[in-house]
Write a structure and sequence with these properties.
This protein starts with a helix and ends in an 8-residue tail after the last helix. It has three domains: 2-98, Rossmann fold, CATH 3.40.50.720; 101-304, Mur-like, catalytic domain (UDP-N-acetylmuramoyl-L-alanine:D-glutamate ligase, 3-Layer(aba) Sandwich); 313-454, Alpha-Beta Complex (Protein-Tyrosine Phosphatase, Chain A). By secondary structure, it is of the alpha/beta class. The protein is 36% helix and 19% strand. The strands form four sheets. Strands 7-8-6-9-10-11 form a six-stranded parallel beta sheet, sandwiched between helices. The protein has a six-stranded mixed beta sheet with strand order 15-16-20-17-18-19. A five-stranded parallel beta sheet has the order 3-2-1-4-5. 45% of the residues are buried.
Length: 462
């Protein structure tokens, strides 16, 4: 990686664009490889805190609302994924842009399994990593899961298999694709960042766009947007189409049959529940088959994988109500899957930051469901509530709240005993929270408040 970076930065004015987790990771690596290198930092935050070491290496600071003016100053730009440049930048500036993702794939594409999709990325990437690790393979997990790829360079050898969870933002400016690319699904999402659904879909498809004839694309053949992309683009690699069907999944025996594997894989002991997770397991098994594992290796590792936090996370029973945290559901499709997966949902919390996605299908499902109590939040919740009101369902109880803590009394007063209260917002969290994890923690704090008020007093300490 050092020599690759040297080629990019030699005799260049270097800019770190965006100084969050990945920007700091980039400056650390450049400092390590090139101790005398001076760099500039550009960030929207006018009060950006820098460490003493970071200050020593900074030649220029471009902070505040005009921070993108730094693009004209720089010769090479290390761009962080969350920085939205839109379509306003010209081709001369685009040619300056690199990222950890683009450089990492340029160096390690032949060793990399890249996984993207609107939903399911983290679960599929983590499950793939877990099973490879359990099988004794040398494997690393990087990317959108929360680990900048540059942070684990020291863990990578020629024998390593690299699992790279990649978001659309990370894929936007790449020109290399991984050896095995996985496209789980594409739904309406991030329309506050991308100017159109076509732009978002195109960024997603970059994961496969630069593959060669000996590379593989594993994808969900039931997703209409993916099928359209494959018909619109000339694809050079080998396609592996996955679809949830009787041919692949034997419901009676709870086994899956994967092309290339001689034996079926039993999935009944998996802790991942729901149709969407069954798809994730099937795609993971297809990945692992291409990575050289046998059915017995996959079947052995599957039951020991624990579901990730904030993804249909069972928080137990408090005040005779079971609480499920599905804060990761930021689009209606994932909330629909949650409703289909869970029985006995009586109360659901919906809404958040409105990114303009279509809620008609979700609202129709809720109108015809057995869910009696609907709690709405934020701009997206306000819009869903207006849509639902047109359905004229007098047996439903509709509530609008401004913050998570306000849901507590509604949940306790209205949720039936032994039923479920589900947080599955179908919207982004950015109106009130930094991310979906913070929203999930707020939900847990609210549950703890209920627990404190309903705990029985200690008999020895009345």
């Amino acid at each position: 990686m050092k020599e690759l970076l040297r080629r990019y930065i030699k005799d260049k004015k270097v800019l770190i664009l965006g100084f969050g987790r990945e920007g700091r990771s980039t400056i650390r690596l450049l400092q390590y490889f090139f101790p005398s290198l001076k760099m500039a930092i550009a960030d929207r935050n006018p009060g950006l805190p820098l460490t003493e070491v970071e200050n020593e290496k900074v030649s220029e600071l471009f902070l505040g609302k005009d921070y993108l003016n730094a693009l004209g100053w720089a010769d090479i730009v290390f761009k962080s994924p969350g920085i939205n440049l839109g379509k306003s930048i010209d081709s001369s500036i685009k040619q300056k842009i690199v990222s950890q993702t683009s450089l990492f794939l340029e160096k390690y594409s032949t060793q990399t399994i890249g996984i993207t999709g609107t939903k399911g990325k983290s679960t599929t990437a983590s499950l793939t990593y877990h099973i490879l690790k359990e099988a004794g393979k040398e494997v690393v997990l990087v990317g959108n899961i929360g680990i900048p790829p540059f942070d684990l360079l020291q863990n990578i050898s020629r024998k390593s298999t690299i699992i790279f969870e990649i978001s659309a933002h990370q894929l936007e400016y790449i020109n290399h694709s991984p050896h095995i690319a996985v496209l789980l699904n594409i739904f309406q999402e991030h329309l506050d960042y991308f100017s159109s659904m076509d732009d978002y879909s195109s960024a997603k498809f970059n994961i496969a766009k630069y593959q060669q004839t000996n590379d593989f694309l594993i994808f969900d053949n039931s997703n209409l947007i993916i099928k359209k992309l494959l018909s619109d683009y000339k694809y050079n690699g080998q396609k592996i189409a996955i679809q949830l069907s009787d041919k692949i999944y034997d419901a009676r025996n709870q086994t899956i049959h994967i092309a290339g594997l001689q034996e079926p894989i039993c999935v009944k002991n998996s802790m991942l529940h729901g149709r969407h997770n069954l798809k994730n397991i099937i795609i993971t098994a297809s990945i692992l088959s291409k990575a050289g594992l046998q059915a017995k290796d996959i079947e052995r590792g599957l039951p020991t994988f624990k579901p990730l936090e904030h993804r249909l996370e069972d928080l137990g029973v408090v005040a005779d109500i079971r609480f499920i945290n599905d804060s990761i559901s930021t689009i209606p499709e994932s909330t629909i899957e949650a409703i289909h997966t869970l029985l006995d949902v009586d109360t659901i919390i919906l809404g958040g930051h409105d990114r303009g996605v279509n809620y008609n299908k979700l609202v129709n499902l809720l109108a015809d469901s057995a869910i009696r109590n609907l709690i709405f939040m934020g701009g997206a919740g306000e819009r869903m509530m207006r849509l639902f009101a047109k359905k004229n369902r007098p047996t439903k109880n509709l509530f609008f709240v401004n913050r998570m803590s306000e849901t507590e009394k509604i949940i306790v007063d209205y949720t039936q005993k032994d039923k479920i209260c589900l947080l599955s917002p179908a919207a982004a969290s950015y109106d009130q929270f930094n991310n979906f994890e913070e929203r999930g923690r707020a939900f847990k704090a609210m549950i703890n408040s209920i627990k404190e008020k309903h705990e029985l007093p200690d008999k020895d300490n009345p």
